[in-house]
Design goal:
Strand content: over 45%
Number of domains: 1
């Protein structure tokens, strides 16, 4: 599934509601959606910094879409969303619940010009690129992130390139009141994907993203302009796979210059043995630190909120880590993933950030770096291609860089059921 189409194809849905509107089959109408119920439980939420430390809740999400396609040349897509939160004692955030609202509404045209194709999409839509390190749709939250955007895609042979201008849609609690604010936040970019020099099975992403905010997360009320340049190298050959990404950021916030970077190295090997064990390891190096003249704190922009684990304790900024994992295919429908994540603070005078890029704990008083060890386990059961149950648990043992500022160990449990229809 590419960056333009995050809607499940009919083969993955339970009802497969698809009909032709003419005898040729060129005009087609398709309906679908999904329902998700998730139970979450925290002990010492936000490492004990949350107003209510022990919190449990249930949230429900329902999304329904309709797509009209005309001979693969024109598409009209509309999607509604609804979400409800029950039992949370802390104040719910905007993505936690919403009355019936418009998630997506866009038109798309497709042109073939010999060996070149062009696509133009305008309207409310999801932006998801690469591994979701910078642009994702916030799947872990109850309400997904979408953008009001104009996007142009170009494809020729083995290369694809997108350019877009967008603004994130803010979730409001009432019906049909979600809106973007272009005058406050503008996102624009260029994203290209093609074959890497390593040959068949290997690819490379090259991208630029620009983001302007009227109010910076690092300096409230001050304007920020941030330019992000990056490259992602990924592929698979035999039992080996890899996914590496290198990111550089510059720009300015208030009167300070931005100079930040991030690097992620990851690889895996799948053994031809009982349970098909897959051993993976990933390491991240993500800059942090601020002074009177310069900001080195990396901004993960619109990253997947479960970057390190399903609990989303720590945002990928101002840290470095090592994360070995083991995946086991217990049966054809049942898989188990086990992992441990060792994390350190990059700059001890900078904050620890929680998703979505919010300062959570202040500087370490005596230069302590170790943020702790997170033990993760998740069990996924897919009794039908359209139905999934996920059980996840994380125990984060707070290191000295957190305990020195009052942080405590965190336990997180998640049980989620999802049905495509």
């Amino acid at each position: 599934m590419d960056a333009w189409d995050r809607v499940p194809p009919p083969a993955e849905s339970l009802l497969n509601l698809k009909m032709s509107l003419d005898e040729t089959g060129e005009s087609q109408l398709r309906f679908g959606g999904h329902a998700r119920t998730m139970v979450e439980s925290y002990r010492n939420r936000d490492f004990g910094f949350a107003p209510v430390q022990n919190d449990d809740w249930v949230h429900h999400r329902l999304q329904m879409f309709g797509v009209w396609e005309l001979d693969r040349v024109f598409k009209l897509m509309a999607e509604l969303t609804w979400g409800e939160m029950q039992g949370m004692e802390n104040d719910p955030g905007p993505p936690d619940q919403d009355r019936l609202d418009l998630l997506q509404l866009y038109t798309q045209t497709h042109y073939n010009l010999g060996d070149t194709s062009l696509k133009l999409r305008a309207g409310r839509q999801m932006l998801f690129y690469g591994s979701g390190r910078l642009l994702a749709h916030r799947e872990g939250a109850n309400q997904r992130l979408v953008h009001d955007a104009l996007r142009l895609g170009w494809e020729r042979r083995t290369w694809r390139m997108d350019t877009f201008i967008a603004s994130p849609v803010q979730v409001e609690p009432e019906s049909f009141d979600n809106a973007s604010r272009f005058h406050q936040t503008q996102l624009w970019g260029l994203y290209a994907t093609g074959p890497s020099p390593f040959g068949e099975g290997h690819s490379v992403d090259i991208y630029y993203l620009g983001l302007r905010r009227d109010s910076s997360p690092l300096a409230g009320g001050q304007q920020e302009l941030r330019h992000t340049l990056g490259s992602r190298w990924f592929g698979k050959e035999g039992p080996w796979d890899y996914n590496h990404e290198f990111i550089f950021q510059t720009g300015d916030v208030a009167d300070r210059d931005i100079l930040a970077c991030a690097m992620s190295l990851g690889g895996g090997y799948t053994f031809d043995a009982l349970l098909s064990p897959t051993l993976r390891i990933r390491g991240d190096l993500i800059s942090g630190g601020q002074s009177a003249s310069e900001v080195n704190t990396f901004d993960p922009l619109f990253q997947a909120n479960n970057y390190f684990n399903e609990g989303g304790f720590i945002s990928p900024s101002n840290l470095y880590n090592i994360n070995p994992r083991l995946g086991l295919q217990l049966t054809r429908r049942l898989s188990l993933d086990l992992g441990v994540n060792f994390l350190w603070r990059f700059d001890t005078s900078d904050a620890v950030y929680s998703a979505p890029f919010r300062p959570m704990a202040g500087e370490a008083p005596n230069g302590e770096r170790y943020l702790g060890t997170a033990y993760n386990a998740s069990l996924s059961w897919d009794p039908h291609p359209a139905f999934n149950i996920l059980l996840g648990f994380t125990h984060h043992e707070a290191g000295s860089s957190l305990s020195s500022v009052g942080g405590q160990d965190v336990n997180y449990l998640q049980v989620a059921a999802r049905l495509e229809f």
